[in-house]
Amino acid sequence: MRRTLLTILLMMALLMPLAAFTDSFASTAADPAFMALIDAIKNVEDEAAVTDLYEQYIATDITMTERSRIEYHMARYFKDMGAEEKARHHVDLEKAYLDQIPEEEGELQRRVAEMEAVSADYYVNGGLGKGMESSSLTKELYKDYPDEYYVALQEAFRLVYTPPIAGGSPAKALRIFSAIEEESEGMSKLDRFSLLAGKGIALAERDEYDESEKYLDEAESIYGGDPAIEAARRDNARTRRNDRNR
User: Fold this and answer.
1) Domain segments of the chain: what residues?
2) Residue 233 — very low, low, confident or very high, per pLDDT cuts 50/70/90?
């Protein structure tokens, strides 16, 4: 009797749907001032336009977490534009805002902001130690919050870009991207772009180039100017040439 009951309970557990992904940052993504700035950054608009939108956004009633997190995007924007000094300035601002985040804004918000601050520092200034710290923070965050859209996306990117000897795995990344894709209804525009671009890059790492290009096309339909797409396409073309020449 006990064995039968355990079997029934096990079958019920297997049939129950997995916990859905959640988005604790939906309110930020729904902010028109935030999205106007993100659109300008991701479409690589000129510095004057981005700076003007940045100043408008910073002047609004936003939390300290949101102040810290927007600096992550600004630092990467200026790095991609080759404006190293301005990129470092925004990294410094991000750290300053991070230190001022009050406890009431929440553990998840604080830890995401911390992860992004280290990631931006690594992206702008380099350094093996910063890279390892960024990877560790992402991995631990995913362990604690695996059902958060943004956290799961960052873990998948970590698995794509980390060398296999250090625990990277495009195959594992694809499983995460695919799980998110199955529940992507209602996902923010920015996260959807990251999902499509990330899955395209992960597929390329698995030598699935045609499928990769499909996802990169979809990502490009959201943000056509993002340098990550151009870089992924160059990598695809180069790898294909190398494969043909073997």
Assistant:
1) 27-145, 147-246
2) confident
